[in-house]
Design a protein that fits this description.
metal-binding; Isopropylmalate Dehydrogenase; single chain; alpha/beta; binds manganese (II) ion; binds nicotinamide-adenine-dinucleotide; binds 3-isopropylmalic acid; 2 domains; 351 residues; two-stranded antiparallel ribbon; ten-stranded mixed sheet; magnesium; 3-isopropylmalate dehydrogenase activity
Length: 351
Protein backbone atom coordinates (compact mmCIF):
# COMPACT_ATOMS: atom_id res chain seq x y z
CA UNK A 1 0.00 0.00 0.00
CA UNK A 2 1.01 3.58 -0.53
CA UNK A 3 0.46 6.12 2.23
CA UNK A 4 0.74 9.86 1.89
CA UNK A 5 2.16 11.67 4.90
CA UNK A 6 2.23 15.45 5.29
CA UNK A 7 5.35 16.49 7.20
CA UNK A 8 5.40 19.65 9.27
CA UNK A 9 8.87 19.92 10.75
CA UNK A 10 8.23 23.21 12.54
CA UNK A 11 10.70 25.11 14.68
CA UNK A 12 13.53 24.56 17.15
CA UNK A 13 14.28 20.85 17.43
CA UNK A 14 11.28 20.10 15.16
CA UNK A 15 13.30 19.49 11.96
CA UNK A 16 15.94 17.37 13.76
CA UNK A 17 13.42 15.00 15.33
CA UNK A 18 11.12 14.72 12.30
CA UNK A 19 14.15 13.81 10.16
CA UNK A 20 14.83 10.89 12.53
CA UNK A 21 11.23 9.67 12.40
CA UNK A 22 11.42 9.77 8.61
CA UNK A 23 14.64 7.72 8.68
CA UNK A 24 12.90 5.09 10.82
CA UNK A 25 9.83 5.06 8.55
CA UNK A 26 12.09 4.61 5.51
CA UNK A 27 13.76 1.66 7.21
CA UNK A 28 10.31 0.16 7.90
CA UNK A 29 9.38 0.81 4.26
CA UNK A 30 12.39 -1.21 3.10
CA UNK A 31 11.64 -4.09 5.43
CA UNK A 32 7.88 -4.30 4.96
CA UNK A 33 7.34 -3.25 1.36
CA UNK A 34 4.96 -0.38 2.07
CA UNK A 35 5.44 2.93 0.40
CA UNK A 36 5.41 6.15 2.40
CA UNK A 37 5.19 9.33 0.33
CA UNK A 38 6.28 12.37 2.30
CA UNK A 39 5.30 15.92 1.47
CA UNK A 40 6.86 18.68 3.48
CA UNK A 41 4.77 21.75 4.25
CA UNK A 42 5.30 24.75 6.49
CA UNK A 43 3.56 25.84 9.67
CA UNK A 44 4.50 27.86 12.73
CA UNK A 45 7.54 30.10 12.93
CA UNK A 46 9.10 28.61 9.80
CA UNK A 47 5.97 29.56 7.83
CA UNK A 48 5.91 33.07 9.34
CA UNK A 49 9.51 33.59 8.22
CA UNK A 50 9.00 32.16 4.73
CA UNK A 51 5.49 33.33 3.89
CA UNK A 52 4.39 35.81 6.55
CA UNK A 53 1.58 33.62 7.93
CA UNK A 54 1.65 30.85 10.54
CA UNK A 55 -0.50 28.46 8.49
CA UNK A 56 -0.38 28.89 4.70
CA UNK A 57 -3.54 27.67 2.86
CA UNK A 58 -1.45 25.13 0.99
CA UNK A 59 -0.36 23.48 4.25
CA UNK A 60 -3.94 22.87 5.28
CA UNK A 61 -4.79 21.59 1.78
CA UNK A 62 -1.87 19.14 1.71
CA UNK A 63 -2.73 17.93 5.22
CA UNK A 64 -6.35 17.33 4.18
CA UNK A 65 -5.27 15.40 1.08
CA UNK A 66 -2.84 13.22 3.03
CA UNK A 67 -3.54 10.00 4.93
CA UNK A 68 -1.87 11.41 8.05
CA UNK A 69 0.19 14.33 9.32
CA UNK A 70 3.42 14.25 11.32
CA UNK A 71 4.40 17.37 13.21
CA UNK A 72 7.63 18.18 15.08
CA UNK A 73 6.92 21.24 17.21
CA UNK A 74 6.21 24.91 16.63
CA UNK A 75 7.13 28.12 18.42
CA UNK A 76 10.14 29.77 19.92
CA UNK A 77 11.45 33.02 21.42
CA UNK A 78 11.84 34.61 17.98
CA UNK A 79 8.06 34.82 17.59
CA UNK A 80 7.05 35.33 21.24
CA UNK A 81 6.13 38.99 20.82
CA UNK A 82 3.54 38.35 18.13
CA UNK A 83 -0.15 38.70 18.99
CA UNK A 84 -2.07 35.51 19.79
CA UNK A 85 -3.63 34.97 16.36
CA UNK A 86 -0.32 35.48 14.60
CA UNK A 87 1.85 33.24 16.80
CA UNK A 88 3.29 29.90 15.61
CA UNK A 89 1.28 27.98 18.24
CA UNK A 90 -1.97 29.27 16.74
CA UNK A 91 -1.16 27.28 13.57
CA UNK A 92 -1.21 24.07 15.58
CA UNK A 93 -4.53 24.97 17.20
CA UNK A 94 -6.04 25.83 13.79
CA UNK A 95 -4.79 22.55 12.33
CA UNK A 96 -6.35 20.53 15.17
CA UNK A 97 -9.63 22.36 14.86
CA UNK A 98 -9.82 22.43 11.04
CA UNK A 99 -8.93 18.76 10.78
CA UNK A 100 -11.51 17.85 13.45
CA UNK A 101 -8.92 16.17 15.69
CA UNK A 102 -10.76 16.35 18.99
CA UNK A 103 -9.11 13.37 20.69
CA UNK A 104 -5.51 13.60 21.83
CA UNK A 105 -4.20 10.22 22.96
CA UNK A 106 -1.06 10.49 25.05
CA UNK A 107 0.30 7.19 26.35
CA UNK A 108 2.72 7.52 29.27
CA UNK A 109 4.54 4.23 29.49
CA UNK A 110 7.60 3.72 31.60
CA UNK A 111 10.08 1.39 29.95
CA UNK A 112 11.60 -1.02 32.46
CA UNK A 113 15.00 -0.09 31.09
CA UNK A 114 14.45 3.52 32.12
CA UNK A 115 13.29 2.98 35.69
CA UNK A 116 16.44 4.76 36.90
CA UNK A 117 15.53 7.89 34.89
CA UNK A 118 12.27 8.28 36.85
CA UNK A 119 12.65 10.94 39.56
CA UNK A 120 10.23 9.16 41.92
CA UNK A 121 11.22 6.59 44.55
CA UNK A 122 11.63 3.03 43.21
CA UNK A 123 8.72 1.63 45.23
CA UNK A 124 6.29 4.15 43.72
CA UNK A 125 6.87 2.94 40.16
CA UNK A 126 7.89 -0.64 40.85
CA UNK A 127 6.62 -2.93 38.10
CA UNK A 128 6.42 -0.08 35.61
CA UNK A 129 3.80 2.44 34.65
CA UNK A 130 1.27 2.37 31.85
CA UNK A 131 -1.20 5.25 31.65
CA UNK A 132 -3.09 6.72 28.73
CA UNK A 133 -4.14 10.34 28.92
CA UNK A 134 -7.16 11.06 26.73
CA UNK A 135 -7.20 14.82 26.32
CA UNK A 136 -10.02 16.79 24.69
CA UNK A 137 -8.28 18.83 21.98
CA UNK A 138 -10.61 21.18 20.14
CA UNK A 139 -12.64 22.78 22.91
CA UNK A 140 -12.33 24.20 26.40
CA UNK A 141 -10.38 27.29 27.33
CA UNK A 142 -8.20 27.02 24.22
CA UNK A 143 -11.16 27.78 21.96
CA UNK A 144 -13.61 29.73 24.14
CA UNK A 145 -14.48 33.43 23.91
CA UNK A 146 -11.42 35.56 24.47
CA UNK A 147 -10.30 39.16 24.28
CA UNK A 148 -7.81 41.70 25.48
CA UNK A 149 -9.44 45.01 26.33
CA UNK A 150 -6.82 47.40 27.57
CA UNK A 151 -5.88 46.36 31.08
CA UNK A 152 -8.41 43.51 31.09
CA UNK A 153 -8.15 40.17 29.29
CA UNK A 154 -10.10 36.92 29.42
CA UNK A 155 -10.24 33.37 28.04
CA UNK A 156 -13.46 31.46 28.70
CA UNK A 157 -13.51 27.76 29.43
CA UNK A 158 -16.53 26.49 27.55
CA UNK A 159 -17.76 22.99 26.80
CA UNK A 160 -20.75 21.65 24.91
CA UNK A 161 -22.22 18.37 26.05
CA UNK A 162 -21.52 16.76 22.65
CA UNK A 163 -17.86 17.69 22.93
CA UNK A 164 -17.55 15.98 26.29
CA UNK A 165 -19.64 12.99 25.23
CA UNK A 166 -17.50 12.16 22.19
CA UNK A 167 -14.17 12.36 24.03
CA UNK A 168 -15.61 10.37 26.96
CA UNK A 169 -16.74 7.72 24.48
CA UNK A 170 -13.14 7.48 23.21
CA UNK A 171 -11.74 7.12 26.71
CA UNK A 172 -14.18 4.34 27.65
CA UNK A 173 -13.48 2.48 24.39
CA UNK A 174 -9.76 2.65 25.13
CA UNK A 175 -10.32 1.53 28.73
CA UNK A 176 -12.32 -1.49 27.53
CA UNK A 177 -9.18 -2.72 25.76
CA UNK A 178 -7.01 -2.08 28.83
CA UNK A 179 -7.58 -2.33 32.58
CA UNK A 180 -11.14 -1.00 32.45
CA UNK A 181 -10.68 2.04 34.62
CA UNK A 182 -11.36 5.66 33.68
CA UNK A 183 -10.34 8.54 35.92
CA UNK A 184 -12.07 11.70 34.78
CA UNK A 185 -10.25 14.84 35.87
CA UNK A 186 -12.04 18.17 36.25
CA UNK A 187 -12.56 21.10 38.60
CA UNK A 188 -16.24 20.50 39.28
CA UNK A 189 -16.01 22.03 42.76
CA UNK A 190 -15.51 25.43 41.11
CA UNK A 191 -16.29 25.44 37.39
CA UNK A 192 -19.67 25.15 35.63
CA UNK A 193 -17.99 23.67 32.56
CA UNK A 194 -16.53 20.95 34.80
CA UNK A 195 -19.93 20.17 36.32
CA UNK A 196 -21.29 19.65 32.79
CA UNK A 197 -18.18 17.55 32.07
CA UNK A 198 -18.76 15.31 35.09
CA UNK A 199 -22.48 14.85 34.41
CA UNK A 200 -21.77 13.94 30.79
CA UNK A 201 -19.02 11.48 31.70
CA UNK A 202 -21.43 9.83 34.16
CA UNK A 203 -23.97 9.47 31.35
CA UNK A 204 -21.42 7.88 29.02
CA UNK A 205 -20.22 5.60 31.82
CA UNK A 206 -23.67 3.98 31.99
CA UNK A 207 -22.99 2.50 28.55
CA UNK A 208 -19.84 0.83 29.89
CA UNK A 209 -20.88 -0.96 33.10
CA UNK A 210 -17.66 -3.01 33.09
CA UNK A 211 -15.52 0.08 33.38
CA UNK A 212 -14.78 1.51 36.81
CA UNK A 213 -15.19 5.30 36.83
CA UNK A 214 -13.64 7.72 39.21
CA UNK A 215 -13.72 11.53 39.28
CA UNK A 216 -10.83 13.58 40.63
CA UNK A 217 -10.31 17.31 40.91
CA UNK A 218 -7.36 18.37 38.83
CA UNK A 219 -5.32 19.65 41.78
CA UNK A 220 -5.65 16.30 43.53
CA UNK A 221 -4.95 14.45 40.27
CA UNK A 222 -1.68 16.36 39.86
CA UNK A 223 -0.70 15.29 43.37
CA UNK A 224 -1.85 11.66 42.94
CA UNK A 225 0.29 11.36 39.80
CA UNK A 226 3.47 11.69 41.84
CA UNK A 227 2.27 9.93 44.97
CA UNK A 228 0.64 6.87 43.39
CA UNK A 229 0.73 6.96 39.58
CA UNK A 230 0.00 3.25 39.31
CA UNK A 231 -3.64 3.83 40.37
CA UNK A 232 -4.31 5.27 36.89
CA UNK A 233 -5.28 3.40 33.75
CA UNK A 234 -7.05 5.91 31.47
CA UNK A 235 -7.12 9.58 32.46
CA UNK A 236 -9.91 11.48 30.70
CA UNK A 237 -9.69 15.24 30.85
CA UNK A 238 -10.18 18.59 29.15
CA UNK A 239 -7.85 20.50 26.90
CA UNK A 240 -5.81 22.53 29.36
CA UNK A 241 -5.78 20.05 32.26
CA UNK A 242 -4.64 17.36 29.81
CA UNK A 243 -1.86 19.57 28.51
CA UNK A 244 -0.49 20.12 32.00
CA UNK A 245 -0.96 16.59 33.36
CA UNK A 246 0.70 15.00 30.33
CA UNK A 247 3.91 16.98 30.81
CA UNK A 248 3.86 15.87 34.46
CA UNK A 249 3.23 12.24 33.52
CA UNK A 250 6.02 12.33 30.93
CA UNK A 251 8.61 13.15 33.54
CA UNK A 252 7.58 10.12 35.58
CA UNK A 253 8.52 7.95 32.60
CA UNK A 254 11.97 9.55 32.54
CA UNK A 255 11.76 12.49 30.14
CA UNK A 256 9.39 14.63 28.14
CA UNK A 257 11.45 13.53 25.15
CA UNK A 258 9.82 10.09 25.30
CA UNK A 259 6.07 10.72 25.03
CA UNK A 260 4.28 10.46 21.69
CA UNK A 261 0.75 11.50 20.87
CA UNK A 262 -2.00 10.88 18.36
CA UNK A 263 -4.59 13.53 17.58
CA UNK A 264 -7.57 11.93 15.94
CA UNK A 265 -11.16 12.60 14.97
CA UNK A 266 -13.97 10.37 13.76
CA UNK A 267 -12.00 8.62 11.03
CA UNK A 268 -8.59 6.95 11.02
CA UNK A 269 -7.01 10.17 9.87
CA UNK A 270 -4.77 11.86 12.41
CA UNK A 271 -1.89 14.13 13.28
CA UNK A 272 1.00 12.59 15.15
CA UNK A 273 3.36 14.63 17.27
CA UNK A 274 5.52 14.39 20.37
CA UNK A 275 3.94 16.01 23.44
CA UNK A 276 6.95 18.25 23.97
CA UNK A 277 7.70 21.58 22.36
CA UNK A 278 10.43 23.02 20.16
CA UNK A 279 13.00 23.01 23.00
CA UNK A 280 14.78 26.19 21.87
CA UNK A 281 17.43 25.67 24.57
CA UNK A 282 18.85 22.60 22.78
CA UNK A 283 17.79 23.30 19.17
CA UNK A 284 20.38 22.72 16.46
CA UNK A 285 22.71 20.79 18.79
CA UNK A 286 21.89 17.23 17.68
CA UNK A 287 21.04 16.64 21.33
CA UNK A 288 17.24 16.25 21.41
CA UNK A 289 15.68 12.91 22.19
CA UNK A 290 13.89 11.77 19.01
CA UNK A 291 12.07 8.86 20.70
CA UNK A 292 8.79 10.75 21.32
CA UNK A 293 8.62 11.53 17.61
CA UNK A 294 9.66 8.06 16.52
CA UNK A 295 6.97 6.57 18.78
CA UNK A 296 4.50 9.06 17.30
CA UNK A 297 5.33 7.59 13.89
CA UNK A 298 4.60 4.16 15.38
CA UNK A 299 1.22 5.47 16.58
CA UNK A 300 0.53 6.74 13.05
CA UNK A 301 1.17 3.29 11.58
CA UNK A 302 -1.25 1.76 14.06
CA UNK A 303 -4.02 4.36 14.28
CA UNK A 304 -4.14 5.77 10.75
CA UNK A 305 -2.81 2.94 8.58
CA UNK A 306 -3.81 -0.12 10.61
CA UNK A 307 -0.22 -1.42 10.40
CA UNK A 308 -0.14 -2.97 13.87
CA UNK A 309 2.84 -5.25 13.29
CA UNK A 310 4.99 -2.50 11.80
CA UNK A 311 4.02 -0.19 14.66
CA UNK A 312 5.04 -2.82 17.21
CA UNK A 313 8.27 -3.31 15.31
CA UNK A 314 9.22 0.33 15.94
CA UNK A 315 8.22 0.17 19.60
CA UNK A 316 10.28 -2.97 20.12
CA UNK A 317 13.28 -1.43 18.37
CA UNK A 318 13.09 1.56 20.73
CA UNK A 319 12.93 -0.78 23.75
CA UNK A 320 15.83 -2.83 22.42
CA UNK A 321 17.97 0.26 21.89
CA UNK A 322 17.20 1.48 25.42
CA UNK A 323 17.92 -1.96 26.82
CA UNK A 324 21.32 -1.79 25.15
CA UNK A 325 22.00 1.24 27.36
CA UNK A 326 21.79 3.72 24.50
CA UNK A 327 20.59 7.08 25.76
CA UNK A 328 20.35 10.72 24.82
CA UNK A 329 21.38 13.50 27.22
CA UNK A 330 17.95 13.91 28.84
CA UNK A 331 17.88 10.31 30.13
CA UNK A 332 21.59 9.55 30.44
CA UNK A 333 23.00 9.02 33.89
CA UNK A 334 26.56 9.12 32.52
CA UNK A 335 28.68 12.06 31.42
CA UNK A 336 28.57 10.68 27.90
CA UNK A 337 25.42 10.35 25.82
CA UNK A 338 24.31 9.70 22.28
CA UNK A 339 23.26 12.37 19.83
CA UNK A 340 19.83 12.59 18.17
CA UNK A 341 21.20 10.89 15.06
CA UNK A 342 23.20 8.23 16.96
CA UNK A 343 20.26 7.01 19.07
CA UNK A 344 18.23 6.76 15.85
CA UNK A 345 21.04 4.69 14.28
CA UNK A 346 20.72 2.26 17.21
CA UNK A 347 16.93 2.13 16.85
CA UNK A 348 17.16 1.46 13.12
CA UNK A 349 19.76 -1.23 13.74
CA UNK A 350 17.35 -2.85 16.22
CA UNK A 351 14.41 -2.90 13.80
P1 LIG B 1 9.52 22.34 25.62
O1 LIG B 1 8.78 21.07 25.69
O2 LIG B 1 9.92 22.81 24.26
O3 LIG B 1 10.81 22.25 26.52
C1 LIG B 1 10.76 22.06 27.93
C2 LIG B 1 12.08 21.43 28.40
O4 LIG B 1 12.13 20.07 27.95
C3 LIG B 1 13.32 22.11 27.83
O5 LIG B 1 14.34 22.11 28.78
C4 LIG B 1 13.70 21.23 26.65
O6 LIG B 1 15.07 21.24 26.33
C5 LIG B 1 13.26 19.86 27.15
N1 LIG B 1 12.88 18.99 26.02
C6 LIG B 1 11.74 19.08 25.27
N2 LIG B 1 11.75 18.17 24.31
C7 LIG B 1 12.90 17.47 24.43
C8 LIG B 1 13.48 16.38 23.72
N3 LIG B 1 12.88 15.82 22.66
N4 LIG B 1 14.69 15.93 24.12
C9 LIG B 1 15.31 16.46 25.18
N5 LIG B 1 14.82 17.50 25.89
C10 LIG B 1 13.62 18.00 25.53
O7 LIG B 1 8.60 23.43 26.31
P2 LIG B 1 8.78 25.04 26.44
O8 LIG B 1 10.21 25.35 26.67
O9 LIG B 1 7.78 25.45 27.41
O10 LIG B 1 8.34 25.58 25.02
C11 LIG B 1 9.24 25.94 23.98
C12 LIG B 1 8.44 26.35 22.74
O11 LIG B 1 7.74 25.21 22.22
C13 LIG B 1 7.37 27.39 23.02
O12 LIG B 1 7.33 28.27 21.93
C14 LIG B 1 6.09 26.61 23.11
O13 LIG B 1 4.95 27.33 22.79
C15 LIG B 1 6.35 25.53 22.08
N6 LIG B 1 5.59 24.29 22.27
C16 LIG B 1 5.16 23.67 21.13
C17 LIG B 1 4.53 22.45 21.21
C18 LIG B 1 4.07 21.81 19.96
O14 LIG B 1 4.35 22.29 18.87
N7 LIG B 1 3.37 20.69 20.01
C19 LIG B 1 4.36 21.84 22.46
C20 LIG B 1 4.83 22.49 23.60
C21 LIG B 1 5.46 23.71 23.50
C1 LIG C 1 1.03 20.64 23.28
C2 LIG C 1 1.41 22.11 23.27
C3 LIG C 1 0.32 22.92 22.62
C4 LIG C 1 -0.92 22.80 23.49
C5 LIG C 1 0.62 24.41 22.38
C6 LIG C 1 1.94 24.63 21.70
C7 LIG C 1 -0.46 25.04 21.57
O1 LIG C 1 1.72 22.53 24.56
O2 LIG C 1 0.75 20.10 22.21
O3 LIG C 1 1.03 20.03 24.34
O4 LIG C 1 -1.04 23.49 24.51
O5 LIG C 1 -1.77 21.99 23.15
MN1 LIG D 1 1.85 20.91 26.02
Amino acid sequence: MEYKIALIKGDGIGPEIIDQAVRVLKAVEEKCGHSFKFEEVLAGGAAIDAEGVNLPDRTLEVCKESDAVMLGAVGGPKWDDLKGELRPEKALLTLRRELGLYANIRPAVMFEELADACPLKDEIVEGGLDIVIVRELTGGIYFGKRATEGSHAYDCMEYWEYEVARIAERAFEIAMKRNKKVTSVDKANVLDSSRLWRKTVEKTAKKYPEVEVEHLYVDNAAMQLVVNPKQFDVILTGNMFGDILSDEASMITGSIGLLPSASIGEQNYGMFEPIHGSAPDIAGQNKANPIATILSAAMMLKYSFGLEAESAMIENAVKKALKGGHRTADISKEESYLSTVEITDRIIAAL
